[in-house]
Amino acid sequence: MPSDDLTAAAAGTWKLGDFTVNRMGFGSMRLAGSADREVAIQVLRRAVELGVDHIDTAAFYGPALDLIREALSPYPENLVITSKIGPGDSPERGFYNATTAAELRVQLDENLRRLGVDHLDVVNLRIMNQPGESLAERFHWLTEFRDAGLIRHLGISNVSPHHLDEAQAIAPVVCIQNRYSLETSRSDDAFIQLCADRDVAYVPFFAIAGTTGAAATAVQTVAKSHDATEQQIRLAWTLHQSPNVLAIPGTGNPDHLDQNIAAAAITLSAADLSLLNS
Question: What's the CA gap between 194 and 97, in Å, rounded?
Fold first, then answer.
């Protein structure tokens, strides 16, 4: 198991537009369900102490934006906060998907207000990815928000390769955020390479999610050989997929946070990867 004094920098770096970030980041979704606000704030501050300079969030994560602001504002100069718009949650409508420029602007303004910033570093347009769905009109609206100085860089989420083509025909795309793990959405293996060829970051969510069966047994075997946790092996596997892959594991537990960051230094052998991928 890696030494406790390792930081997120052990994972190496990749670019998000003109930002360079450590490939091991932090996802804030799980903070929404944190029962202890002070612990959640402690986790965020500890993440930055451990070299995390890329935090993923969204307004529909509940209190995550407020926690980020309380824990980290004024923000470190090198900290990149990536949010997403598309899905929304309001007392009047419940959970909904924004489909108009006005709805997207309301969500963008909520991100800005709750984070306490005048612009967002990166915004992902998240879509439902239904058969035949186009994101062109909505992505064009995001470029207008970018041109107004409210967003610096754009990404897309829950998408297929044709959506990347569609978006890049309109404006530069710095990242893709999709569900992907050792056992899920492996059809994106080729998509990761396509993104790498285009210098686009691929940012998987639910990367440490696992199931039972042969893959879980393989993870257990590799974890034992490295004196590591199963979650650490899943994170290490994620980072081993390609240099353009960024990991954003989330947790509200300080001990789990340290373990996640330490996974940045795990080197999997060819035999490990063969066993895991089999």
Answer: 28
> Measured between alpha carbons, how far apart are the two ends of the chain, in Å?
23
Residue in 91, 85, 133 with CA at minimum distance from that of residue 110: 85
**Cβ density class 247-278: b for 16+ within 10 Å, e for less:** bbbbbbeeebbbbbbbbbbbebeeebeebbee
Nearest to 28 by CA among 258, 251, 254: 251
Identified catalytic residue from 61, 75, 180, 202: 61
Q: What is the pLDDT of residues 45-87, one digit of tens each?
A: 999 999 999 999 999 998 999 999 999 999 999 999 999 999 9
Band of residue 28 on the pLDDT scale cut at 50, 70, 90: very high
Predicted TM-score (pTM) of the model is 0.95
Residues 6+ apart with CB under 8 A from 267: 236
150-169 burial code (b ≥16 CB/10 A, e <16):
bbbbbbbbbbbeebbebbee
Strands (E), the chain: 13-16, 19-22, 26-27, 54-56, 80-85, 87-90, 94-97, 120-126, 151-157, 175-179, 201-205
**Closest alpha carbon to 32 in 238, 179, 263, 252:** 252
Q: Is 180 a catalytic residue?
A: no
* Poorest-pLDDT segment among 14-23, 88-97, 183-192, 209-218: 209-218
> In the block, which residue shows the tokens 């946070």?
257
- For residue 116, the one-letter residue type is G
Length of the chain: 278
| Angle, CA 151 vertex, CA 96 and CA 41 arms, to 5° | 70
